[in-house]
Amino acid sequence: xxxxxxxxxxxxxxxxxLVLSGCAGTSKYQxxxxxxxxxxxxSDTDIKMLSEKIIGELLASDFIERYEKPITISLLEIENNxxxxxxTDALFGEKITEAIINSGSGTFEFVDRSLxxxxxxxxxxxxxxxxxxxxxxxxxxxxxxxxxxxxxLTSIRTVTRRTDQRYYKLSLRLVDSERNTIVWISxxxxxxxxxxxxxx
Length: 200
Hints:
This protein is 36% helix and 28% strand. By secondary structure, the chain is α/β, with parallel strands linked by helices.
């Protein structure tokens, strides 16, 4: 083989190998306590920050003084009213539940969600999948839960040629099952902006 053709072929093979290795990309483990500022949508950092802020607000609320401690509390479904697939119950719901249980304040006594689900089936509530305030009152009394937390996640997304901006709002409320009143409301939001690559 001509030596020049040999070198051309060798250079071509090396170049192809470099391209393929670049396309394959790499992956590595990262610490779970590091801030995720790469995810354009809802990230684990957002969930942790919002959950901690919400529980801080809840424990500092004045309405708590009106109740005998510990107050029985449980969490109903957090609706996902965004255009994205976000498992709000598994992400926000579990994180908020964990934060309440681990607060160590002695203010709340958490009732497991499975008991509520069983009561919902028994009393044939939430036929459309959503528990109304009136049903929450009935559910709380039947399950022996004084306060029921429910809420929703909403979003607004604005996309331009250069940026992708996303606004999320997590709205929560506590319903007193004995009085059929809303005793606490929390609205927390985050806004995220990411630049778009030239191929997007």
